Amino acid sequence: MDSNWILLHGALGSSQQMQRLDKSFPAGTVYNPDLPGHGSRAAEEGPITMQKMADELDAHIRESGKGKVSIFGYSMGGYVALLAALKNSAISRIITLGTKFDWSPETAAKEVRMLHPKKIEAKVPAFAKMLADRHGENYWKSVLHKTADMMTGLGNAPDLTAEKLTQIRAEVSICLGDQDNMVSREESEWATKQIPGADFKILEATPHPFEKVDVQKILSIIK
Predict the structure, then answer these.
(1) CA separation (Å) from 187 to 56, 72, 75?
(2) DSSP H helices in the chain
(3) Residue pair 7/21 in contact by the 8 Å Cβ criterion
(4) How do the domains of the chain map onto residue ranges?
């Protein structure tokens, strides 16, 4: 296993989401942050954007002075990792899981429809409680609204276009669960074809929510 790994959680997630994977690494070899506007940082003001998160990741890698790093990015985290790799050659390897690449006004609107706090409280109260525990009772609704705005922005102007994907020089594996109902095989294979030398992997018996993913399958790819 490479010595320097970064784990990036998904939208509405936090570093807690990656703890099952985090504890499988030797101490001191992995960085598992809360991305801007998530988890312990949910109270931060300002919008949540992919570029903001990628810029912060880039800055952290440069300031850490650890040299080459590898990244596992789940869903949004994979998008952030690929975006950061466009400007940081120290990112040598990226593994994504369940990362959405098909962003248009239509696909964004579909995702945003699932981010209404009142509907979540009424229909899936357990999920509302999880979000409140993860981001704070006073901030989880704001995280939902900011995430919806981020997705709308991606729908209007995706950060990762075909042209930008062709410029990525890291070793990339695009992974997708065979039971993922949020990300299609078509968009995942499309992204794989754009990135020079990238490979595509299907994970069997794997849905989209990371909480239901067998982390041993991720570790087998990492190793």
Answers:
(1) 26, 19, 13
(2) 19-22, 50-64, 76-85, 105-112, 117-123, 125-135, 140-156, 162-165, 185-194, 215-222
(3) yes
(4) 5-102+159-222
The predicted-structure confidence for 111-161, as pLDDT tens digits, reads as follows 999 999 999 999 999 999 999 999 999 999 999 999 999 999 999 999 999
Name the percent of the chain lying above pLDDT 70. 99
Residues 180 and 206 sit within 8 Å (Cβ to Cβ):
yes
Rounded Cα distance between 46 and 164, Å, is 26
- What does the pLDDT average to over 80-101? 97
3-state SS assignment for residue 162 = helix
User: Is residue 215 a contact partner of residue 175, using CB atoms and an 8 Å limit?
Assistant: no
Instruction: Read off the pLDDT of each residue in 87-93 and give the average, rounded to a whole number.
Output: 96
Consecutive H or E run containing 210: none
Q: What is the mean pLDDT of the chain?
A: 96
Secondary element (H or E) of residue 178: strand 171-179
What is the spatial distance between Cα 165 and Cα 120, in angstroms, rounded to a whole number? 34
CA dist 90 and 62 (Å) reads 8
Cα–Cα distance for residue pair 169/63, rounded to 1 Å: 21
Q: Left, alpha or beta for 111 (phi > 0: left; psi -120 to 50: alpha)? A: alpha
Model pTM?
Answer: 0.96
Q: Does domain 5-102+159-222 have CATH number 3.40.50.1980?
A: no
pLDDT category at 65 given cuts 50, 70, 90 is: confident
Q: What is the mean pLDDT of residues 16-37?
A: 94
